[in-house]
Amino acid sequence: MDADSTTLFVGGLGSGKTLGGWIKAAMMPAGSGVGLVLTPTYSMVRDVLMATLTEHFRPLIDTVNKSENWVRFVNGNVALMRSATNADLMRGTNASWGWVDEACFVGSKAIKVWSGRVRVGDRIQWMTTTPIKGSHVYTTYVERGVPARIIQCRSDDNPYLSPAYIEEQRLVLSEKEARRELDAEWVDADGVLFNSDDIANRRRDNPPSSVRRVVIGVDPAVTSKRRSDRTGIIVTAQGSDGHAYVLEDLSGQYAPHEWAEVVCDLYDRWRDSGCIVVCETNQGGDLVERNLRAMGRPIAYRGVHAAKSKADRAQPIATHYRMGRVHHVGIHRELERQMTTWEPTDADSPDRLDALVWALTEMAPRDYSSETTKTYTPVKKSVRV
User: How far apart (Å, rounded) are the C-alpha atoms in residues 380 and 302?
Assistant: First the structure.
């Protein structure tokens, strides 16, 4: 494959990655035939690819088939849109051009299947993505040096993007996250515990049909000021296969009564699935439990006190990811950003990651036979982990 056949567009938030990908697809000459467009999940096919296409390219479209996820342009070329969560559905396709959107969120297996289907004629391929060091894309085109034309675009290179938006993002992102998400840099994160390819390769579109239990992990912030840590709130489930599934990330900047209400609402939704709420109590102590109790709503609760370092607590969970026992249902962009940039030496508190670790640790087999259970229904005493 020569350098002209693959283009990698690496961009920050709002830099126009997906729009640029569709512009290149729409400009493919008449007679280019079938193109294969890949994205991390089916929801992104619907909410990102289809939405961008129909909003900006109506005059160039002849036919849109939303049920089968394909579009025919007026010049006769066809774009087939597929999800990386079911990569084998691409087998049998013969394409002459292809595009992967948010390629760093797509696992190595899906990209290899996609690339193997783009096999007719000149095999023009391009990728648009947020830069994630450790991803299959980074390993292939940056570390190994497989030929590609790499274009980088910062968020503020887009003249139509509000400067106030960029400034706001710099306030809420850590320095390392801002360099990746806004400046489009391959941020050095050699000490990270979680590999983006481990997450991407096991991603699912839908939760398991049968759930054994649900654990809501909470890492509460002490204050709700603008520069305060956020409260991490992560919903996980254990499927009948014994694997863990990350369902929701409702982390955010909340006042104490606000995050308590969010947690209680989540508990009510999952009550019939053996749900329990697990909260870190290092910062707030008994105040965390009293905050939940003040809502006057019955929940099963366990307070956990961190006796080990964040890295020591996260390491066993990272091992479960490497062994393929944890699946993200859809893309949890902010959580995954934190997972793949946070290093043990960082000063920033990884609120979402902490909540995830507490939830998945609770899900692992442990002996609670010596602990007492109190209720408001019920509340389990804090344990040191």
Answer: 5
The Cα 32–Cα 30 span in angstroms is 6
pLDDT digits (tens, 9 = 90+) for 295-315: 888 899 988 887 788 888 899
149 backbone dihedrals φ, ψ, rounded to 5°: -90, 115
- Tell me the residue length of the chain: 385
Query: Considering only CA atoms, which of 179, 163, 155 is closest in space to residue 348?
Result: 179
**Contact call for residues 340 and 192 (beta carbons, < 8 A):** yes
pLDDT at 284: 60
Residue 194 in tokens: 């979680």
Q: What is the model's pLDDT at position 190?
A: 63
Question: Domains (ranges, CATH) in the chain?
Answer: 6-181 (3.40.50.300), 196-384 (3.30.420.240)
Q: How far apart are CA 68 and CA 139, in angstroms?
A: 32
Q: What is the mean pLDDT of residues 184-197?
A: 82
Residue 134, pLDDT score: 79
Q: How far is CA 40 from CA 17, 32, 33, 104, 155, in A?
A: 15, 25, 23, 9, 22
